[in-house]
Amino acid sequence: MQMMILLAWRNIWRNKRRTAITISSIFFAVLFSIFMLALQNGSWGRMIDNALSSYFGYGQIHKKGYYDDPGINTLMEYTSDWKGKSKNIEHLKDFVPRLESFAMASYGNQTKGVMINGIDPKKENALTKLSGKITEGKYLELNDTAVMIAEGLASQLKIGVGDTIVFISQGYHGVNSAGKYTVKGLLHFGPPDLNKMMVYMPLPEAQQFFGCENLISTLIIDIDDRSNLPGIIKKLKSQVEPDLHEVIEWEQLVPNLLAAKQAKLNGVYIFMLILYTIISFGIFGTILMMIKERSYEFGILIGIGMKRKLLSMVVMLEIILLGMAGVFAGVIAAIPLVNYFRVNPIDMSHMEKGLDNMFDQYGFEPVLPTAFDISTFVSQAIIVFVICLLLATFAVWKIYHVKPVESMKN
Prior knowledge:
With about 400 residues, the chain is α+β, with helices and mostly antiparallel strands.
């Protein structure tokens, strides 16, 4: 076997130009496909992280039935037991409590439907960096009797910091809820819908407003890294009582974003399929030329008694070595390239103004990082190598159909 590998290696370099072209085509195919896939996974990963950390969280815990039918009457108790659970699960940073419901906001002659979020200001800020969205005024404290409102809502109501806003709503179990609060700060949200309806209130004050002491609608799951989420969700589901609570993963919270990611990745896969089809024809052409140029050689070898099986193995080894060389070089070159753009993402803030505004509108950072995922490198290397193996079968087929006399005449 060692002799056959050595023979195949020497045969490859008999025509250095053809070998260099073949290896280069495989090299660039692997390099480009790895970078494209890493860029797509990285940029979408960053977008998903931005969306989840800006509001939804990486998962949520509700009272059973709340996800399908959210409402002020489907609330869960918020006790010290939850704090103990967060400390017992590795990679789970904290549970962030929220009490979410709708109300009518009024100031002067202006009225608008709003969404009230009762929050623990410190925990909420650790998850969503809410204090960074303040454009005017100050951030909430847990014992405040004030609110923060979105600046778009403030513009519609013609209200400012220091003014008093009135809320009317239906509370827990049909209780009439009404209250007036001082506006302590204005917040800017990228998505226009959020910027016209969001109101934040300290959790104790929101519980008093809706008449639901010690009750919340949602526990947000805050984690250190999204890659650790499956293990955390599994442990949480084993610890909560399934008849009382439900654990909702982020894929269920933002299905539209997930669908958009999959649609975009499908486009990338189609592009890579076209790329690999082109490369396959290039490799096939090289194999065809190699067989045609060496038909006299094959005829002589078979004529003097060399078994077709051994000759086929040598030729297949040649093609495999070409594929391995191109794949290996492509992967080695892709590692520093992908890692560089992972650390130094492509900055889109200097691109066209409309594109930059689109990122800002949806609250995404205007950067496109790559994702350094070993599976990306391995999958692309395997795909190219399999292509080489499949094309090598054509060479084997041709050798088994070589007619020595005709080959030597040609």
